[in-house]
Specification:
This protein has 483 residues and is of the alpha/beta class. Helices cover 39% and strands 11% of the residues. It has 19 helices and 11 strands. The strands form 3 sheets. It has a 6-stranded mixed beta sheet with strand order 7-8-6-9-10-11. Strands 1-2-3 form a 3-stranded antiparallel beta sheet, covered by helices on one side. Strands 4-5 form a two-stranded antiparallel sheet. Helix 3 runs antiparallel to helix 4 and helix 14 crosses helix 19. The longest helix has 21 residues, at 180-200.
Length: 483
């Protein structure tokens, strides 16, 4: 019989008052009796030091659990009584196990070879019981039948009080043991299978370009009629959908080749009229100059190269939390956004410390996922000091706490109202797929992204989804940054 299990049954059953110290022995009512110096299966200091003896655990139950005293008072009393005190680290776990709040403890070590249990009833009681038995009362008169019956009853009594210390489940549940190597092996097998499937796919057929029919470039009867009415005098060689200025010097450099200019003004046949006044001639020249400027493409259009160059100016900024408890910060954001590989903050931080490096306040992330050519982004955990830099902040990885936005310049951010903040900046909340999302985060206008704890081959898909979502957000905002 395990004395620790017996003590737990008495404490959880509400009969701890029947456990008393009789000299150097511990009596559990009239049922059991153990030596007080007997070692139990519970190991002290979180399973790293020696085992607690039964007397120290009984002293813990009497002076701490039953009397509800403070731990400091119990510790002084144990020292005064020269009893091994339960440490502060073991206090909570031992209390939950003895009171029945938990069925097992990681600090209980099974199978101690030198753990011996003395006679439960004492030698005098055992001798009296044997003398009263069939063999003691009648000697050998009972014969072999009496001896066999007594042996069977004794065996049944032993089996009734037997405690199974280990079974199949307890042998499989080993503390401080994981199967990360097996999961890594399975992950490598899945990656190899995906590479074979991609190699077996047939190559995509090239798309042949479709050549235009050129029907809009043919000269129509209307074009010939306009030429007869003096179209070359008005400065047009061709009319219709494809036109060009008769004077090459009048065409501006910003007109894109092949872009259709606006149609020419309607041509009226020449009518003999009187010579206009000088002020009317000046107005006619001014109007004719303005029409030539419009037809030559002098004003910039959204499709011009100047407009494209203006749209692609400025490096976007992505904000990350400075806290070490965040899933993404300055330590692991670069491999996640560049390569699509998620690594924990602790792993990246230890690697940086081993190489002698220091955490940077600003990191340049080169985006290649979903882009034919690299695009630069700036990542930082420091709030920008200039108002111009705040205009370049396009995304933020959230910690899940409103105080992260306390210094942000948007309306209501300092008070925890993030409606305007997430309308200007795209928010992302990263968490493990087996963890629940805080209800506060669900109420924010952001994108919740989950990653798997073990499947690293899925990280690149998660990173691509973040970039695609950010592209759609910037297009809806009509951003002029280079993204």
């Amino acid at each position: 019989m395990d004395p620790l299990t017996v003590l737990r049954d008495f404490v959880s059953g509400g009969t701890a008052d029947q456990v008393v110290m009789s000299g150097d022995r511990v009596d559990f009512g009239s049922r059991y009796s153990f030596p007080g110096s007997l070692r139990t299966l519970y190991k002290s200091e979180g399973g790293k030091k020696d085992f607690y003896d039964l007397g120290s655990l009984v002293f813990f139950v009497k002076n701490f659990l039953v009397n509800k005293t403070k731990y400091t008072d119990y510790f002084r009393a144990a020292k005064a009584a020269n009893v091994m005190a339960v440490s502060f680290l073991d206090r909570k776990d031992l209390e939950e196990y003895l009171t029945g709040k938990k069925d097992k403890s990681d600090f209980i070590v099974l199978g101690i070879p030198d753990l011996q249990v003395d006679n439960l009833e004492g030698p005098a009681a055992k001798k009296a019981r044997l003398d009263e038995g069939p063999l003691g009362a009648g000697g050998a008169a009972g014969g072999d039948m009496a001896a066999g019956s007594d042996e069977d009853s004794t065996l049944k009594g032993i089996l009734a009080h037997e405690l199974q210390l280990r079974d199949r489940n307890s042998m499989l549940s080993v503390p401080n043991r994981n199967f990360s190597k097996v999961l890594a092996l399975l992950s490598n097998v899945q990656k190899e299978e995906q590479r074979r499937q991609q190699a077996a796919r047939p190559a995509a057929k090239p798309v042949l370009p479709i050549k235009g029919s050129g029907r809009y470039e043919r000269q129509t009867q209307q074009d010939a009629r306009l030429q007869q009415l003096g179209g070359d005098v008005l400065g047009t060689v061709k009319t219709g959908f494809v036109t060009a200025s008769a004077n090459p010097a009048a065409a501006g450099p910003s007109s894109a080749p092949g872009a259709p200019p606006p149609p020419p003004p309607p041509v009226q046949p020449p009518v003999p009229t009187a010579r206009p006044a000088p002020d009317q001639q000046q107005q006619h020249r001014s109007h004719h100059h303005q029409s030539q400027h419009r037809s030559s493409g002098g004003s910039s259009r959204p499709g011009s190269s100047q407009g494209q160059q203006q749209r692609r100016s400025g490096t976007p900024i992505i904000m990350v939390p400075p806290a070490l408890t965040s899933m993404v910060n300055m330590y692991n954001v670069q491999p996640f956004l560049e390569q699509g590989v998620f690594r924990t903050v602790e792993e990246c931080r230890a690697e940086l410390a081993a190489s002698g490096g220091k955490k940077q306040d600003l990191i340049k992330v080169t985006r290649t996922l979903g882009r034919p050519s690299p695009v630069a982004y700036h990542v930082t955990d420091k709030e920008p000091e200039r108002k111009e830099d705040w205009k370049r902040v396009v995304a933020v990885f959230c910690l899940g706490k409103p105080w992260q936005f306390k210094k942000w310049p948007f309306k209501g951010a300092g008070e925890g109202d993030l409606v305007e903040t997430f309308s200007r900046v795209r928010g992302y909340f990263l968490h493990y797929s087996d963890e629940k999302v805080d209800p506060t985060v669900k109420g924010w206008n952001l994108r919740v992204v989950s990653v798997n704890r073990e499947g690293r081959h899925r990280d690149v898909t998660v990173a691509q989804d973040i970039w695609s979502d950010l592209d759609a957000f910037l297009q809806a905002q009509k951003s002029t940054l280079a993204y």
